[in-house]
Write a structure and sequence with these properties.
Helix content is 45%, strand content 17%. It is an alpha+beta fold. It has 4 domains: 62 residues, N-terminal domain of TfIIb (Single Sheet); 44 residues, no CATH class; 177 residues, Nucleotidyltransferase, domain 5; 121 residues, no CATH class. The protein has a 7-stranded mixed sheet, sandwiched between helices. It has a 6-stranded antiparallel sheet with strand order 1-2-3-4-5-6, with helices on one face. Helix 1 packs across helix 2, helix 1 packs across helix 3 and helix 5 packs parallel to helix 6. The radius of gyration is 28 Å and the shape is elongated.
Length: 457
């Protein structure tokens, strides 16, 4: 039976061209396919070169006569053609200044006339960093590192509200062919003129792959509607459909109604990790942190609240009522503010179906969280400028490209940690005991409460 492979079958490797330039301090730098490497160390047989770009793990080994021996890892950033042009230009001017009596300004002007590309290179390096959403995106930032199309949506949804979406063709194919997707937003790595970075991840091979990177101007329903409609339109143009069966998100209020409207019949659940985080933050907010840490009754009750999503949906509300009925009056008084929060947030504002994760194979969006953790480490600063940010996205797309090739070629998934397997086994055992009538609903919840982490931060 023919299969619709959404990953490329092979990787094309360009022929490596090596040359050398000098740094400002006069040290030799190796240039390979418009990337710059510095000498890391030398042994009796080999020179070890590493990419000069901060955080890039690409390396090259040459022999002592500078003959290529080996390349290691792919670059996580665009090539540095303009930087190399400026370095070469500077070296020409420096050599002429040493060997000639011609005034340096005249040498500079003469070399500029010889090399029309130098002015373009200097402009590219010193591109103006925009401070509003009104800016043009240079072509180099609309492509992947392999020069494929990357910018898929760039539109003003109001006069001053802009939405930008990046994705490669293979990322879109994977997304539109996936039944399970994750969505999440982050704020600290977002350029200042936008409100959030929003990513959509597809699940394949039991792994999460980032497929769409979005810059959104706000967290309003209209913006989410616009984003999904643009992606549906893109899918139609590709003769595909954007119709996932399962979507997991955080508890963004605007998303719940939008997903129900845009994806009819989809199973929409929210991340269990975010649920327990929210409950623990409420514990802190109402002044129960000390009691949670020192009073076993308070801790046990709070952990039962955190365990409620692990129960079957039809028994959650009754179990909550039974929990309250069985709680001593003095303890309920102590927990009064927390209970008001829980009732309002998780039974009134957010429907039970949204936070119940019973029976789901995927209960958290930790895969998306892992992506953001890695992305934040690479970015290193809060609110990077837009050009640096897009370079990081290009690096992430390049990582996707190479990982997808490896998985398509048979790379195995990471084995689940022993602790994770043990926790799942305990959850399954409690469920079997409940359905077999060995334990009642309250005992079921009590058992699950011991599986919940002791402290949520």
């Amino acid at each position: 039976m023919a299969t619709n492979n959404v990953f490329p079958n092979e990787e094309t490797q360009p022929k490596l061209s090596i040359s050398f330039i000098k740094s400002q301090k006069g040290k030799t730098l190796l240039v390979a396919n418009e990337y710059v490497f510095k000498l890391n160390k030398t042994t009796t047989t080999t020179k070890y070169w590493k990419c000069t770009y901060n955080g890039c793990s690409s390396k090259i080994h040459t022999d002592l006569n500078d003959k290529l021996l080996k390349t290691i890892d792919d670059h996580s950033h665009p090539s540095e053609k303009e930087v190399i042009q400026v370095r070469e230009f500077r070296e020409k001017v420096k050599q002429r200044a040493v060997n000639e009596t011609t005034p340096i300004p005249r040498i500079y002007d003469e070399e500029c006339e010889k090399d029309n590309g130098i002015n373009k290179a200097r402009r590219a390096i010193t591109a103006i960093i925009p401070t509003t959403q009104l800016f043009d995106i240079p072509e180099t930032f609309t492509k992947t590192l392999r020069n494929d199309d990357f910018l898929i949506v760039d539109k003003m949804i109001t006069r001053r509200q802009r939405i930008i979406l990046f994705a490669s063709n293979n990322q879109l194919k994977l997304l539109f062919n996936s039944d399970k997707i994750l969505m999440d937003g982050t704020f600290s790595t977002c350029p200042k003129m936008f409100d959030q970075v929003y990513t959509i991840h597809a699940i394949k091979y039991d792994q999460s792959f980032p497929c769409v990177f979005g810059l959104l101007p706000n967290r309003l329903k209209g913006t989410y509607h616009f984003m999904f409609q643009e992606l549906k339109s893109t899918a139609t143009q590709m003769q595909l459909n954007f119709t996932p069966k399962s979507i997991m998100t955080d508890f963004e209020p605007a998303l719940i109604g939008v997903i129900a409207a845009e994806f009819s019949g989809v199973t929409h659940s929210s991340c269990y990790f975010h649920f327990t985080q929210a409950v623990y933050r409420a514990v802190q907010r109402v002044g129960l942190s000390t009691s949670y840490n020192n009073d076993d009754d308070v801790k046990h009750f709070c952990r039962k609240l955190m365990a409620l999503p692990l129960l079957p949906e039809p028994i959650i509300e009754d179990n909550y009522d039974d929990l309250l009925a069985a709680t001593p009056t003095e303890l309920k008084k102590k927990l009064d503010d927390l209970l008001k929060y829980f009732q309002e947030q998780w039974f009134t504002k957010v429907p039970i179906s949204q936070w119940c994760v019973h029976g789901l194979s995927l209960r958290t969006n930790n895969n998306a969280e892992a992506f953001y953790s890695r992305f934040n480490r690479r970015v290193q600063v809060n609110h990077p400028n837009i050009w640096s940010f897009i370079k990081f996205l290009q690096g992430e797309e390049n990582r996707f490209h190479h990982l997808s090739i490896q998985f398509h070629a048979g790379l195995g998934t990471r084995s689940k940690q022993i602790k994770t397997i043990a926790i799942q086994r305990r959850i399954d055992n409690l469920g079997e005991r409940y359905y077999d009538g060995v334990i009642n609903a309250m005992e079921y919840l009590d058992g699950l409460s011991f599986i919940v982490a002791k402290r949520k931060k």
